[in-house]
C-alpha cells in the first residue's frame, strides 16, 4: 500500500518516489523539491538524490532536475488551485497537508511595511513526513511525574530541529490522556484531560476538527490556532488539566503559559534550542526558566539514527546550562560525531547509547544506496 503523502506530489515526481525501496520509505523524513535542481530525500541520518530512473545516488549531478512546470503543478496541488485561499499559510512559509505533513516553501517574498505579506515565485519545497510512534514516550514519562498532583510536572522539551520533538510530544499527550504512566508508583492514577493547541496542524493532523493521530481518549484539540490565544481559549472553555503546545518562544507565549500555571493547569511544551545553555540565554525562555516555570526538562539529541533523551530537574538544568561552553554548542550537524560535554570525565564512553535512548522509529537499518560517486565512501552522503 502506497503512503498517503505520495498523493500530494505531481504525477511525474510521484512516479519516481514510488520506486523507492520499502526500507527507505519507512525511514523517510524529508523530500526536497527545487526548481532546476536535483530531487533530494533525507532518510535516517542520510541524504541522497533521486535519478531520472528513481534510483538513489550520492552524486547530485545524477539527480533528476525538477522543472518549473512541475513546481507550479506541485504548488497548485498544495493550495488546491487557490493561492488566495492559502495566503496566510504562504505568508508563514509553509502549508500543512492531510496527515500532518508540513511542506516548507521558499521563493521571493513580497513585503509591506517591512513585514512579509506574501510569498511568490515559489521554487523550493521541503516536505517533512509526520509519523506517529505509539509508545515512544514510555521511557520518558516516568521521569516527569509529580506524585503529589498525580500528574506531570511543568515540562519543557528541548532539542534542535529534526530530533523528534513533535513525535515525542504527540505520544506524551496520548499517554497522559490514556493514563499510561508506565511507573509502579502511578498505579491507579487515571488519565488527565489534555488540551492541545496545534498551531501548525502537525501534532494532531486534524481533518474537519477530528485528530487523525491517536492522542488518547481525553484529549481536545484547537487546530490551526495561535498558541497564546489558544491556551487561553482552552483554559476558559475546556477545563484542561494538561496543556500541550509546540515550539514556544514568543513573549505572548510566555504570558499565556504563566496564565495557565496560575489557573492550576500543567504545561507540556517544546522549544527549539541547541541545548539547555541555549534555553537559559534566549530572553523569553530564560525568563520562564529563571522564574521556575518548568519543573522538568527533556533534552533530545541525535547521533546518527539514534535519538537519545535525558530528563533533568530545574536545578540540574540550570547547573548544566552554566557549565556548557558556547564553542561546542552551535552549528553542529545531525550527523556529526557526539560532542563531549566539558564536564564529562575523560574516561566516559560518550559514544555508547545510554539507558535513555529512545526508539522513535529511527533505529539504524541497512539502507540501499545506488550509483554513488567513486569518491564517496559508503554511498550517499551520511
From TrEMBL:
Keyword entries, A-Z: ATP-binding, Nucleotide-binding
For this protein, the record's SUPFAM superfamilies field holds:
P-loop containing nucleoside triphosphate hydrolases
Renumbered to this chain, region (Disordered) spans: 323-359
Q: Does the keyword ATP-binding apply?
A: yes
- Record's superkingdom? Bacteria
The record ties this protein, via Gene3D superfamilies, to: P-loop containing nucleotide triphosphate hydrolases
Where's the AAA+ ATPase domain?
151-304
**Known Pfam families for this protein?**
Spore_III_AA
Q: Which GO terms describe its molecular function?
A: ATP binding
Do you know which NCBIfam families this protein is assigned to? spore_III_AA
Q: What is the name attached to this protein's record?
A: Stage III sporulation protein AA
List the source organism. Answer: Cohnella fermenti
Amino acid at each position: 500500500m502506497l503512503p498517503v503523502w505520495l498523493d500530494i506530489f505531481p504525477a511525474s515526481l510521484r512516479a519516481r518516489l514510488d520506486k523507492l525501496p520499502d526500507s527507505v520509505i519507512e525511514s523517510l523524513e524529508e523530500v526536497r523539491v527545487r526548481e532546476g535542481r536535483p530531487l533530494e530525500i533525507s532518510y535516517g541520518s542520510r541524504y541522497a538524490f533521486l535519478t531520472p530512473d528513481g534510483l538513489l545516488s550520492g552524486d547530485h549531478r545524477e539527480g533528476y532536475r525538477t522543472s518549473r512546470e512541475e513546481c507550479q503543478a506541485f504548488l497548485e496541488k498544495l493550495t488546491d488551485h487557490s493561492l488566495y485561499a492559502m495566503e496566510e499559510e504562504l505568508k508563514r512559509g509553509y502549508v500543512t497537508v492531510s496527515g500532518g505533513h508540513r511542506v516548507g516553501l521558499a521563493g521571493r517574498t513580497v513585503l509591506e511595511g517591512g513585514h512579509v505579506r506574501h510569498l511568490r515565485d515559489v521554487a523550493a519545497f521541503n516536505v517533512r513526513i509526520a509519523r506517529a510512534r505509539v509508545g515512544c514516550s514510555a521511557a520518558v514519562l516516568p521521569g516527569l511525574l509529580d506524585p503529589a498532583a498525580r500528574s506531570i510536572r511543568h515540562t519543557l522539551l528541548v532539542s534542535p530541529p529534526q530530533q523528534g520533538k513533535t513525535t515525542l510530544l504527540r505520544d506524551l499527550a496520548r499517554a497522559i490522556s490514556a493514563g499510561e504512566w508506565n511507573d509502579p508508583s502511578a498505579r491507579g492514577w487515571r488519565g488527565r484531560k489534555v488540551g492541545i493547541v496545534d498551531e501548525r496542524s502537525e501534532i494532531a493532523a486534524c481533518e474537519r476538527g477530528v485528530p487523525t493521530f491517536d492522542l488518547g481518549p481525553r484529549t481536545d484539540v484547537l487546530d490551526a490556532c495561535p498558541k497564546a490565544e489558544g491556551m487561553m481559549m482552552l483554559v476558559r472553555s475546556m477545563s484542561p488539566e494538561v496543556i500541550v503546545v509546540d515550539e514556544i518562544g514568543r513573549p505572548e507565549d510566555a504570558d499565556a503559559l504563566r496564565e495557565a500555571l496560575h489557573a492550576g493547569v500543567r504545561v507540556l511544551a517544546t522549544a527549539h534550542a541547541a541545548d539547555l545553555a541555549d534555553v537559559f540565554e534566549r530572553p523569553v525562555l530564560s525568563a520562564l526558566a529563571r522564574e521556575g516555570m518548568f519543573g522538568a526538562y527533556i533534552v533530545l539529541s541525535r547521533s546518527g539514527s539514534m535519538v537519545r533523551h535525558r530528563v533533568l530537574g530545574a536545578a540540574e538544568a540550570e547547573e548544566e546550562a552554566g557549565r556548557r561552553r558556547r564553542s561546542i554548542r552551535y552549528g553542529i550537524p545531525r550527523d556529526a560525531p557526539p560532542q563531549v560535554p566539558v564536564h564529562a570525565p575523560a574516561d566516559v564512553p560518550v559514544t555508547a547509547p545510554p539507558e535513555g535512548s529512545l526508539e522513535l522509529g529511527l533505529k539504524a537499518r541497512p539502507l540501499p544506496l545506488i550509483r554513488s560517486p567513486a569518491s564517496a565512501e559508503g554511498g550517499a552522503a551520511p
